[in-house]
């Protein structure tokens, strides 16, 4: 009996490592955080007067792909594929859906650029404490965020789907996507949020980067290129 226990005890570290591997492979990474403290991107869905963040829903991750189910879209599915960019710190994302309600809209938000290696995160929200020095320049469906010390100013750029209604919002008010979108711009934790129309069966794209220059019409081709590179 003693011999059996000693043998089992020696196997405990092995089983523990196996469990860690399983949990790591299935770990959710929503919302999406750029490396080197270059910002946090959060996605939500609006249906009528109701809204929810995707990170609050049922999320299954396999490789670069996420399948998301939620009460607002009943039997439907939202699918995300996220690919890191080869030529810049950033990523490109393709969003598609199946069996989604006609009135569904996307709500997205971005902020918390502070240059910190470890984000000040306690939950899935965009960390308000990291938003204080963010300044946004919005042009149509694209934007630039300026952050850092004045003599060491850094930037991160974003391109969102055409039709995105982008506005400054209060990073303290993230109870729901609609709460953030309607929160107003008087705050010490500025973020940007947007409502975006979404036609059934339409694929939408987002891109965040620091060293490049992209327009929305370029994103489907860029996504295909990066997705093929990562799939090899």
Describe this structure in words.
- The protein has 232 residues and is α+β, with helices and mostly antiparallel strands.
- It has a single domain, classed as Glycoside hydrolase, family 65, N-terminal domain (Beta-galactosidase, Chain A, domain 5).
- It has 3 helices and 14 strands.
- The chain has an 8-stranded antiparallel beta sheet with strand order 4-5-6-7-14-11-10-9, with helices on one face. Strands 1, 2, 3, 8, 12 and 13 form a 6-stranded antiparallel beta sheet that branches.
- The chain starts with a helix and ends with a helix.
- Mean pLDDT is 85; it is low at 11-28.
- Residues 1-27 form the signal peptide.
- Keywords: Signal.
Global Rg: 20 Å
* Average pLDDT over all residues: 85
Tell me, what is the CATH class?
Mainly Beta
Uncertain stretches? 11-28
* Beta strands, count: 14
How many distinct helices?
3
The largest β sheet comes out as: 8 strands, antiparallel
Give the spatial strand order of the biggest sheet. Answer: 4-5-6-7-14-11-10-9
Structural class: alpha+beta
- How would you spell out the order of helices and strands? HEEEEEEEEEEEEHEEH
Query: How far apart, in Å, are the first and last alpha carbons?
Result: 50 Å
- The CATH architecture name reads Distorted Sandwich
Beta percentage is 35-45%
**CATH superfamily descriptor:** Glycoside hydrolase, family 65, N-terminal domain
Signal peptide: 1-27
Organism: Phocaeicola sartorii
Protein name: DUF4450 domain-containing protein
InterPro entries: DUF4450
């Amino acid at each position: 009996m003693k011999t059996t226990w000693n043998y089992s005890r020696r196997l405990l570290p092995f089983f523990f490592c196996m469990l860690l591997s399983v949990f790591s492979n299935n770990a959710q990474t929503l919302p999406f955080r750029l490396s080197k403290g270059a910002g946090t991107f959060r996605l939500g869905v609006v249906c009528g007067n109701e809204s929810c963040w995707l990170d609050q829903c049922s999320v299954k991750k396999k490789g670069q792909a996420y399948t998301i189910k939620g009460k607002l879209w009943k039997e439907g599915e939202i699918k995300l594929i996220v690919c890191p960019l080869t030529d810049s710190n950033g990523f490109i994302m393709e969003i598609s859906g199946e069996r989604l309600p006609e009135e569904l809209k996307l709500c997205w938000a971005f902020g918390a650029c502070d240059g910190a290696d470890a984000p000040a995160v306690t939950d899935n929200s965009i960390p308000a404490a990291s938003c204080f020095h963010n300044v946004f320049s919005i042009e149509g469906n694209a934007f630039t965020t300026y952050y850092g010390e004045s003599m060491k100013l850094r930037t991160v750029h974003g391109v969102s789907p055409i039709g995105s209604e982008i506005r400054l919002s209060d990073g303290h008010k993230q109870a729901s996507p609609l709460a953030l979108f309607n929160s107003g711009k008087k705050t010490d934790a500025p973020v940007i949020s947007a409502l975006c129309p979404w036609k059934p069966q339409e694929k939408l794209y987002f891109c965040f980067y620091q060293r490049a220059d992209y327009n929305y019409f370029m994103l489907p081709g860029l996504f295909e290129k990066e997705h093929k590179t990562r799939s090899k």
